[in-house]
Design brief:
The protein has one domain: Glutaredoxin (3-Layer(aba) Sandwich), CATH 3.40.30. It is 33% helix and 23% strand. The chain contains three helices and four strands. It has a four-stranded mixed beta sheet with strand order 2-1-3-4, with helices on both faces. Strand 1, helix 1 and strand 2 form a beta-alpha-beta unit. The longest helix has 13 residues.
Amino acid sequence: MLSPAKITMVKKIMMDGSPCQKCVQVMEKLESSGHINSISRIVEAREDDPGSEGMQLSSLLGVDKAPFFVVEREGQTPEVFTIYFKLVKEVLEA
């Protein structure tokens, strides 16, 4: 398996402090499949904090869905995945 240099997961924290439901579901899938071990970092996009790392990444990359994944391979432009199963197929199980 060609392992990417770094995979960052960005998960959203809602205005009331609760995690977004889809983010919770994707985390459960990552953990049950063992793919969580391939995730380099998990950052939060906090709705109540536009300066949070996840919100800044979201703005920088033009992504408005959560969770999303940024895959960085040496010498290549970072790839953004907003669909978990596409990430699994094209990166985690490639």
